[in-house]
Amino acid sequence: MPIFAYRVRLPSGEETRGTIEAQDQNAAVNKLRQQKAIVQEINVMHKNQLDAIIEKLKQFNPLRPTVKSKDLVLFSRQLSTLVSAGVPIVQGLTILMDQIENPAFKKVVVGIADDIKAGISIADAMRKQKEAFSDLYVAMIKAGEIGGILDVILERLSTYLEDAEALKGKVKGALMYPTIVAIIAASVTVFLLVVVIPTFQEIFSSFGADLPLPTKILIGISNFLRFYIIFLLIGIAAIIVGFLQYYKTEKGKLKMDDIFLKMPLFGPLLRKVAVAKFTRTLGTLVKSGVPILQALDTVAQTAGNKIIERAILQAKESIREGEKIADPLKKSGVFPPMVIQMISVGEETGNLDTMLSKIADFYDQEVDVAVKGLTSMIEPIVICVMGIVIGAIVIAMFMPMFSLGGLAGSAG
User: Fold this and answer.
1) Which of 120, 106, 117, 104 is nearest to 40 (CA)?
2) In terms of CB atoms within 10 Å, which of 148, 164, 338, 389 comes out highest?
3) Is the pLDDT of residue 412 over 50?
4) SS in 3 state form for the chain?
């Protein structure tokens, strides 16, 4: 039987760790409950290194079911309805279990229900399910528990998740079209260089005459791709891996995120997306009763950009020392003046959450406009580049044809 490592809280309030042997995790939890212990954490211990490797491979399985945003939205709305109707939380979770189709999410909900039965708060139970619930989600649930407005918080969460997913979809939509066109253009170019041009090369070789310089260059590129394409692909893969490793470092992420925000065309869009996400998230947390310092900490963790995250954390420290929110955000130089002014007005009037929501709505519209403008701008640029590249290839290959008679005469 497998062995499980656990961390529990005893009836005396003391926390302790240990191991227990059981048929499965549920059996292990039941054994610990019989000892009147509240389970804080429990994980299977691997008998050998091979088991550990197999378990990690399972986690990286691309076909493994995962918890999706739409699962959380539906779950939040349904649980909000049940809680507002007076249904106990455990009973509500049990009702939802039968309706959840995603096996990964069903397992998560079962785990939450078991933990709540063991005496853990809803927020702490969700915090253990990191693959499903973000820090923001847990922070809002905790605020809802403390304030006794869990149903309201769940409804706000579902709305927030829908808005966040819509914002993400807009950005993906802006990048999807140029990416597809660029891939098609690159594929056509490679096909011409690797398949079509060698055929022309054989024809030109039969004449034995000197070829124009553009044609020689093109044939050289074609030969390089044909004979060294494997090394080229390995080099590209190495560059990508190196970039990803560099981006994982604190210094690399800070540098690259700064470059991303300053990029032509995409930089302004990314900045607007960041502002919309920041104001939407902070507004939702403040409206839900989360303390401002905790809210800023959560917003920084979910910012998605190191420059924005650093500006928010600096603002948090300034606020801790007694400053207003608007002042340190203005000093960061990251946020537009209009955002700073509206936040300042919200602080003065005591309607910060409302003002943040209005800013988020405004920047959502700005993102819409930016996406449409970017798409309409990139489309002709990509088509022009594609036309120039393919046109240059065609001209370079047909230049010798213009003097085909002379080449044939010299060959004769």
Assistant:
1) 120
2) 164
3) no
4) CCEEEEEEECCCCCEEEEEEECCCHHHHHHHHHHCCCEEEEEEEECCCHHHHHHHHHHHCCCCCCCCCHHHHHHHHHHHHHHHHCCCCHHHHHHHHHCCCCCHHHHHHHHHHHHHHHCCCCHHHHHHCCCCCCCHHHHHHHHHHHHHCCHHHHHHHHHHHHHHHHHHHHHHHHHHHHHHHHHHHHHHHHHHHHHHHHHHHHHHHHHHCCCCCHHHHHHHHHHHHHHHHHHHHHHHHHHHHHHHHHHHHCHHHHHHHHHHHHHCCCHHHHHHHHHHHHHHHHHHHHHHCCCCHHHHHHHHHHCCCCHHHHHHHHHHHHHHHCCCCCHHHHHHHCCCCHHHHHHHHHHHHHCCHHHHHHHHHHHHHHHHHHHHHHHHHHHHHHHHHHHHHHHHHHHHHHHHHHHCHHHHHHHHC
CA 362 to chain centre: 23
Q: Around Cβ 46, how many Cβ atoms within 10 Å?
A: 15
The amino acid present at 309, given as its one-letter code, is E
**Domain 148-412: assigned CATH number:** 1.20.81.30
What are the domain boundaries of the chain?
3-59, 69-133, 148-412
pLDDT one-digit tens code per residue, 291-350: 888 888 888 877 778 888 888 888 888 888 888 888 888 887 888 888 888 988 888 888
Q: What is the C-alpha separation between 183 and 186, in angstroms, rounded?
A: 5
Other Cβ atoms closer than 10 A to 59: 8
Q: In this structure, are strands 38-45 and 15-21 parallel, antiparallel, or unpaired?
A: unpaired
What is the token pair recorded at 32?
A: 């610990």
Q: Do 20 and 4 form a contact (C-beta atoms < 8 A)?
A: yes
Q: What is the pTM of this model?
A: 0.63
What is the gyration radius of the CA atoms in the chain, in angstroms? 30
- How buried is 201 (Cβ within 10 angstroms: 0-12 exposed, 13-18 middle, 19+ buried)? middle
Do residues 328 and 344 make contact, with C-beta atoms less than 8 angstroms apart?
Answer: no
